């Protein structure tokens, strides 16, 4: 009985029990992933990866049905008190599509990380699995902070708008910049202050080996697999700088923000082993994504500045964002596949 007041307490617009139920469900999915389906080291085939993605995508759609029929949105986070569930489900799917597209760049960078550290394919799923654990924690922190700031100081959305427009413009015209891992300051810092083995030791992130002073006593060493995991987490944090402002531009409901983020991360990480081999076929996706970011940035200015404050234009309803996102991303993907239809897929390393 003592736990009931805590479970029914409201956090970020929803009762604590709902947050715990969602996290427990995600924990169950991760246990099912590593503890049952992929409990042994091995290469995840493209077909198995596709099936895993289809399962996660189906769950994301099913959760959208929950949002529409069962979820009780907090009116504070919505423009109108009418049709709250309809607004919530549109914002959820818009956020899910946007986060999936934003996370797509992770695949290319993660592939670079695995190549740099010479991570065998049979251990890559283990790194991605623990990377998801970190992403769940870090996204919760970023979204919690972002929600507190946005709902206390609404004008921060204008800063988000300017950032999204700038990011989209830079993606559109800034060119490609290759990530140089050997020059990464975080990696240099860690390697100077930790004992790191020269080679990967099975699937272990840490191993016990003799101290380098020759005393013979066993001490803990990090392996290159741990450094790869650390860099995957760092990349996710860097990409969150783009994705968190983008999703708050779509919806201010923290529960919708977080759930759409997590389902997108789960789905895309499960698709890594299939998309990593064909990532070059989606080379024009970034142009569609850049236009989506610019559009969302202008939507903030339109809705909160020109519509709410100046009363100059009508409010842009959420479904228009969803339609625009679908058209731009779908068009960019279709154009990419058409333009690269004669290009061969790189063989798996």
From TrEMBL:
Cross-referenced Pfam families: TerC
GO cellular component: membrane
Primary localization class, coarse: membrane
Keywords: Membrane, Transmembrane, Transmembrane helix
Entry membrane topology: Multi-pass membrane protein
Bilayer-spanning residue ranges: 16-32, 53-71, 101-120, 127-149, 155-173, 218-240, 255-275, 287-306, 318-338
Superkingdom: Bacteria
Subcellular location: Membrane
Family: Belongs to the TerC family.
Protein's UniProt name: Inner membrane protein alx
Lineage: Bacteria, Pseudomonadati, Pseudomonadota, Alphaproteobacteria, Caulobacterales
